[in-house]
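Human:
Care to share another protein and its fold?

Assistant:
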Amino acid sequence: MRRIFSCLAATVLAASLTACASVTAQQAGGQTVRGAQAEYLVFYADGRQADALDLIKGAGGTALHTSAKLGYVLARAGATFAEVVGSDPAIVGVSTDRRIGYASAAGSARAFPDAGSFTRSSRSDPLSGRQWDMKMIGADRAHAKAPGSHKVLVGVIDTGIDGKHPDIAPNFNRELSRNFVTDKPKDEKGETLDGPCETSDCKDAVDQDDDGHGTHVASTIASPINGIGIAGVAPGVQLVNIRAGQDSGFFFLKASLDALTYAADIGVDVVNMSYYVDPWLFNCRNNPSDSAKERLEQRAIITGMQRALDYARQKGVTLVSALGNGATDLGKPKLDEASPGYPRGGERVRKVDNSCLNVPAESAGVISISSVGPSGRKAVYSDYGIEQTDLSAPGGDALDGKAASPARSILAAAPEAVLRAKGRIDKSGKPRTADVLRDCTRGPCSYYQYLDGTSMAAPHATGVAAILISRFGKPGKAGRSGKEGVTLSPAKVEDYLYRTATAKPCPSPRAYEYDLLGDKETHLCEGDAKKNGFFGRGIVDAYKAATFEP
């Protein structure tokens, strides 16, 4: 999707696949407007906070809050405010704050077999035999040796986590979970955005996910081995919901800044970011086709997110991101047809180049993950690029075979309420589509869905990182939570991820041709087996991480 690097729903309808809303729709948040005024994030240059406050006052604005950690002022002002203050060298970026929320604590060289060969489970979980992805990276064998420590905190910055799901609840940390967004029923144009609020304050509980994307991600990382459904890469670690995405799938700057800062302050060990910051797919500092206000907004996203990512990394948070689902060489982008994606309908075609960044996938200090299908080829939808791809992981590819099949996608937990709302299960709870499965082996039935996307690839890498942190992390307090945890520097985690990955060279020929149900598309792989644009430094390997000795 535009906003979330989520997935394609793996249901095969006639000869086509349906795109999941979490992967293809743009997320949106609502600008807070009081009369003719709005709220802005004003990012100032190092040491220029006082100048920024003077500029805000001089432009008729009111400073509401100052963040010294990330170097910005939240201000309320009129429509021309951004251009006025943004013209001063003390200001490095200005973005409308489209969503003001508050934190709610309530309530290789090796060949891979085709997915069809994985039919029998060797573990206790009934659906694990369908998890070709776990077998590909050796997670099924790693579980016995290194399932992950409960002292390791994994933050899922996404649309939320269904913390009551039977295959997530044992590893869900409700106490530390937070929601940094407020549901917005309609956008500024009066069009449906998040839909009706479920609560009087429009704040979803911390164990709720009305989209399903974050739940799928969390399940891939750490669904426990409990005789129910599936097992995640690191079934022994804790999951912390750090929600930054709207129900509609949009991810905006302020919520992302809050989520990263919070993750750093509570001692989270690794975060998964399977999304990009709206409303720009590519953020350009000086694109001639953009207005002055639009350039300031994109600079704010680039600068603000980098500051938040740096803050988190300095506090010991390993940063993992999905690379994106645009089937684009991110080192050679030419057109952006999806921006600005909010409000919907404002998209236009603009020329872009390699100076324009997809954030956070192309931000410094982030480990970005491309997606592979069950045969080990780069997934047809996955973005790539020799500068941008750090590692690869199974993300599913329903077209990776002679005929499209959901079994080639990634199976993970899905919220029952979301499936019901989307008509994917009937009144009795029986799945209506081939991409949805139900397990009623123990207690209440639980649901699972096959999805494709780099959103599905990234959590495999996050899970492997959690295994490495569990094994090599040093004892310590988990941030302000005050509880005993472990810590391993992000640089060391990154090094170990690279050293345990299974190297995979470019295909031969390098210009790989995909067959998209009759249409042909060619992607060019650059680099060698040690580092290339399709697979980065290789496909992550949980078993190697579980047995690796530095």
